[in-house]
Structure formats: structure tokens, C-alpha cells
């Protein structure tokens, strides 16, 4: 196949990926850009839950007692999360009238508390709110069940689009540096498309790859030699399992028993459930101690945070702990695909009109 034939082929692939996925790429990329600044955005949208009066903390029992006063009768406390970076204490509870077992995140009621006083700052559904909506939009396009897989395949298509876009950007005549010129075309939108596409191609390829990796973890784990054939426990079912209404071990005793194994700052405590009858105490740095609810025996447990390449892929995609420079790149990498989709549609529409005019002139010439 000649170079010109390859160019025509990649042009068609690039064009139809853009036109077919434009309506999905725009919300997916913009929501990803916004979530780079997740904490700041949440503080902006929900200022009341961050109206803390200090950083000193009380006992965990004081927070649970205060939260129970704001919950409905019969609600079961499922988790307590201690503040990080000056935020509130968060108590998550399962509503007494929880929905039947379903796909997706379990229903939770979140109680936000002031660390120094245990005063209730806000009570809100765990799966509601603007920031939670953005998470659902970016992770699954708000499509239950298969949304995560749809997002993964969009990531695969975007990797192909990045490759074909660079091929089409490369000047057909002269040195490659000619492609960096602004006036490659008489139309501003076309020049924008060329330049934005070039500068964002590599970061967008990385973000698309990591997004696909997150959507298809088993496939990529097997591909990278990290296993993935054996299925682990159903984490969704474990998360939806009801917390025990009356655990045998008091919360204060659980904290004391866990301290015999690990002495560090507690980040969260998860209550025992009908599927996992152990308390789970997580410390700063990710260390975990399990405390058996029946006998109070405390043992160290493996960290649940994914390690190795899987953890790295998620950090690259989210920007967590990657510094402001990469976070800025991710933010731009979310804004520019939306602009590329718009300019690409404009270019296609103009070319469509131009071809119609040429066809009309040829028809008149024939007649």
C-alpha cells in the first residue's frame, strides 16, 4: 500500500472515530478535567461540609454518637473516616430502608462532622451531588452495568485516534517542523485542530491507555504478567453487605485491640458485615489491622490498595500524588479533546459542503 493510500485509510479511521464518539468524548473528557481538582471542587460545591473549626480530634466514639443523632432510626453505621488535610470527619451509614441488591455503588448516608466539636456539618446521600455525578459520568457515563466497559472501549478508540492523528499531522512535503506552523490552512478551526492535536497526542494516548487499563484490569493484568485469570471476591457484593446492627465488640475496644498490632494515625474504621465479620482499621500509609468481632483478636492484614503497575496506572490517570505539573497536563488533556471534537465536526461539515458544491458543478458540466 502506498503512502498516499495509507494516509487516506488513516484519515477515514480518524474521521469516523471522531464523528462517532464526539458526543461521548465531550462529557467524558470535561468530567475528567474537572475531577483532577476533586477536593477543591467538592469544597466549592459543598462549603458547609468543610466548615471545620480546627484540626484537633475527639475519640471515635464521640463521632459515632453524634452521627447517630443525625441518622434515621434503624440506620447502620458502616464506616468512619478521620479527617485528612483539614477536612471533616465522615461517618457512612446504610439506610434502614436500603434498596434491594443491585449493581453499582451501595446506598449510603454520609454524616460530615466538625473534628474538634463533633458538630454535624451536613447530612447527604453518598451517591448524590455534583461531584459524585461527575465521578459516575467519567467512570461509566452514568450507564449501569456496562458503562465501565463502554468507557474502556472509548479509551481504546482514543489511542487509535491519537496514532492516526499524528500520522495525518505529519507534513507530506518538507521537514516535520513545518507541521508546527500556525498557518497550515486558511481556516482557523483547522489550524487549531492540527496544533492542539499535535501537542496533546502523547498525553492523551497515556490517559486513554490508563483509562482502558482501569476499565479492563483483568485483561491488562494478564497482558503485563500480573495474573488476572483467577477471580477474587465480589467486591461489589462485599460493599453492599449489611453492616452488623449490634457488633459484639465495642468501638473503643476495637481501637485498643488494633493499637496492640499497629500504633499509627487511624484513617478509617469499617464495621463488620454479614459477609466479613471483622472490623477493618486502616492507618495512614495504607496499613490494615483486622479485629475479629467474635473474639476481639487483632491481626495485621495485607493492604487493599492495588500495588505495582495497576496502582501506577491509576495514579497516572487520576494525577493523585503526581504533582501539580502532571495534574495540569491531565486537566488540559481533558479540555482539548472536547475542543478537538468540536473543530473536527466543523471541518467535516465544511468539507461536506465543499464536496456538494464540487458535485453540483460537475453535474452542471455534464449536462
Sum this structure up briefly.
This protein is α+β, with helices and mostly antiparallel strands.
In spatial order, strands of the major sheet run 4-3-2-1-5-6-7-8
Gyration radius, in Å: 26 Å
DSSP helical segment count: 11
- H and E string: HHHEEEEHHHHHHEEEEHH
- Distance between the terminal alpha carbons, to the nearest Å? 37 Å
Shape: elongated
Bin the strand percentage: 5-15%
Mean pLDDT: 86
Strand count: 8
Classify the helix fraction into a percent range. Answer: 40-55%
Largest sheet: 8 strands, antiparallel
Q: Show unreliable segments.
A: 228-232
What structural category characterises the helix and strand content?
A: alpha+beta
Describe, in plain words, how this protein is organized in 3D.
Keywords: Membrane, Transmembrane, Transmembrane helix. With 367 residues, the protein is of the alpha+beta class. It has a domain at 144-221 and 310-366. Helix content is 52%, strand content 12%. It is built from 11 helices and 8 strands. The chain has an 8-stranded antiparallel β-sheet, covered by helices on one side. Helix 1 (3-35) packs across helix 5 (147-169), helix 1 (3-35) crosses helix 11 (323-366) and helix 6 (188-215) packs antiparallel against helix 10 (308-318). The chain is elongated. The model is unreliable at 228-232 (pLDDT under 50).
Amino acid at each position: 500500500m502506498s503512502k498516499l493510500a495509507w494516509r487516506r485509510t488513516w484519515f477515514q479511521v480518524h474521521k469516523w472515530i471522531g464523528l462517532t464518539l464526539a458526543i461521548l468524548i465531550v462529557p467524558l473528557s470535561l468530567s475528567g478535567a474537572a475531577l483532577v481538582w476533586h477536593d477543591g471542587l467538592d469544597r466549592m460545591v459543598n462549603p458547609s461540609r468543610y466548615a471545620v473549626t480546627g484540626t484537633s480530634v475527639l475519640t471515635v466514639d464521640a463521632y459515632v454518637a453524634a452521627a447517630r443523632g443525625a441518622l434515621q432510626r434503624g440506620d447502620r453505621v458502616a464506616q468512619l473516616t478521620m479527617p485528612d488535610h483539614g477536612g471533616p470527619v465522615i461517618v457512612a451509614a446504610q439506610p434502614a430502608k436500603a434498596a434491594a441488591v443491585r449493581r453499582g455503588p451501595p446506598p449510603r448516608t454520609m454524616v460530615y462532622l466538625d473534628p474538634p466539636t463533633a458538630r454535624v456539618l451536613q447530612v447527604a446521600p453518598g451517591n448524590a451531588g455534583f461531584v459524585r455525578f461527575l465521578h459516575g459520568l467519567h467512570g461509566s457515563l452514568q450507564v449501569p452495568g456496562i458503562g465501565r466497559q463502554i468507557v474502556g472501549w472509548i479509551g481504546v478508540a482514543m489511542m487509535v485516534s491519537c496514532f492516526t492523528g499524528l500520522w495525518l499531522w505529519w507534513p507530506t512535503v518538507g521537514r516535520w517542523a513545518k507541521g508546527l506552523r500556525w498557518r497550515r490552512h486558511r481556516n482557523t478551526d483547522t489550524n487549531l485542530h492540527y496544533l492542539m492535536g499535535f501537542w496533546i497526542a502523547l498525553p492523551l494516548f497515556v490517559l486513554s491507555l490508563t483509562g482502558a487499563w482501569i476499565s479492563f484490569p483483568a485483561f491488562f493484568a494478564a497482558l503485563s504478567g500480573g495474573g488476572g485469570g483467577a477471580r477474587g471476591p465480589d467486591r461489589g457484593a462485599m460493599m453492599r453487605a449489611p453492616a452488623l446492627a449490634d457488633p459484639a465488640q465495642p468501638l473503643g475496644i476495637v481501637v485498643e485491640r488494633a493499637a496492640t498490632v499497629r500504633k499509627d494515625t487511624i484513617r478509617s474504621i469499617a464495621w463488620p458485615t454479614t459477609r466479613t465479620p471483622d472490623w477493618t482499621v486502616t492507618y495512614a500509609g495504607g496499613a490494615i489491622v483486622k479485629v475479629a468481632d467474635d473474639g476481639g483478636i487483632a491481626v495485621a492484614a495485607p493492604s487493599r490498595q492495588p500495588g505495582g503497575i495497576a496502582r501506577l496506572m491509576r495514579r497516572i490517570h487520576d494525577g493523585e500524588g503526581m504533582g501539580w505539573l502532571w495534574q495540569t497536563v491531565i486537566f488540559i488533556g481533558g479540555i482539548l479533546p472536547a475542543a478537538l471534537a468540536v473543530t473536527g465536526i466543523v471541518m467535516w461539515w465544511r468539507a461536506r459542503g465543499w464536496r456538494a458544491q464540487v458535485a453540483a458543478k460537475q453535474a452542471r458540466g455534464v449536462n
